[in-house]
Amino acid sequence: MTTIAIETWGGATDETSLTASFARQPILNRDGMLCGYEIKVCPPELPLTPGEEADQRGSHSGGDTHLDPHPDALPGRAPTPPQRVARAIVRGLVQNDVRGALTGHPAYVAVSRDLLLDDAILRLPAERFMLELPPSLEADDELIARLVYLHGRRYRFVLDDVTQPNETFAKLLPYAEVVKIAITRAPRALLPKLASVLKSAGKLLLASGVDAQADFDMAHGLGFDRFQGYYFARAQSSATRRVSTPRHALLNLLQLLAGDPTVAQLEAELKLSPVLVMHLMKLANSSGLAVGHRVTTLRDAINATGTDRIARWTQLLLYADGRKVALEDDPLLQLAASRARFMELAIERMPEAGRDEADAAFLTGVFSFVDAVFGGSLEKTLNILTLSRPIQAAILHREGTLGLLLSAVEALECAAWERIATLCERLQPLTVDDIAQMGLAAGAWAGVADRSAQGLERIED
């Protein structure tokens, strides 16, 4: 969420403040690693201008609805309502909270005709944004000329939500670098030929709506380059994330940490896994926790790090891919960390929430799709982790405040704005804008490449 004070580009200032909300959805490459995010926009609502109110009154009364052109439409005057919305969105997209949530990856964002034709779009850094052209766009001479101009300014375009070629598709294709195909809605028999022709033309192919492993496998086999969807967070994809020996060691460590262990008990458990010892020593020495001296023993590392930080480090590392991949590019770990941080931030905004509630919220988020790692029954895995009954009820049945917040972050991940608004009625004082803002903040927190200060280092299989 970003609150924007709208400026007219004619020099005058509109004092109205508008609020646009943003959510991000991951885009993965052929290796299953993060390579971008689509920014989903919930545009601000504008109050009716006097002219629009008169127009509505005329239409309701059945009288003559013909009005002189609104002053906003005249050259050199205030922007039209669609322009104001477009400029509000641009202002929001260049704010720090959106930039932080992108974690260095490019942003894919849908653009309207009004935004394309308005010079406000030039405020978007061309190297950071991919502009998605919706299928409803009218590809007339004015628009094509504008695309040519923007292309000369190094802006890149994506043909969005393609199901099958049509006249608009043919007119816009020469200016697109990426073609996004809705693979679950496109005719299945058409996909091989369409993919082959577009690849031969040098286009990058992005498959959207990839929520099942079978969809990913099919699109991958057809040569698609990018994938958007949550197939990687489903239990059926667990075969790609083997339950390795270090992951079993992490699970055993979590069980011990749940019982408030002594330093001696932690030391004994950690010594069973040299990989864990190595990473904990690195964590303690790189995070600034060992003030004034270098940590040289495991006991010192435990004392310097603290059981709370060790616990969070261990919880998140359950999701780390076994390959040697940068943590900020690991989609499942990023999703788990973002969801956990969102839950923690959100519960802190609720009445009478304290440290215990914040810890429970973090745990609810981080373990809400642990079956994607271990497969099998989610309930059985949660029992092994000895999570409290309210946490299990929230994850399994979406019960209680934790369950409502978990439903809210799931809706945010899908940019289901109406669903979020409905949930906020039961999560007062939280609003849709609050939910969106905390989602961006959580994404930025999760995506920091150098997480040593937060206690996160890689465990390699």
TrEMBL record:
<feature type="region of interest" description="Disordered">
    <location>
        <begin position="46"/>
        <end position="81"/>
    </location>
</feature>
<dbReference type="InterPro" id="IPR035919">
    <property type="entry name" value="EAL_sf"/>
</dbReference>
<protein>
    <submittedName>
        <fullName>C-di-GMP-related signal transduction protein, contains EAL and HDOD domains</fullName>
    </submittedName>
</protein>
<dbReference type="InterPro" id="IPR052340">
    <property type="entry name" value="RNase_Y/CdgJ"/>
</dbReference>
<dbReference type="InterPro" id="IPR013976">
    <property type="entry name" value="HDOD"/>
</dbReference>
<feature type="domain" description="HDOD">
    <location>
        <begin position="243"/>
        <end position="433"/>
    </location>
</feature>
<dbReference type="InterPro" id="IPR001633">
    <property type="entry name" value="EAL_dom"/>
</dbReference>
<dbReference type="Pfam" id="PF00563">
    <property type="entry name" value="EAL"/>
</dbReference>
<feature type="compositionally biased region" description="Basic and acidic residues">
    <location>
        <begin position="54"/>
        <end position="71"/>
    </location>
</feature>
<dbReference type="Pfam" id="PF08668">
    <property type="entry name" value="HDOD"/>
</dbReference>
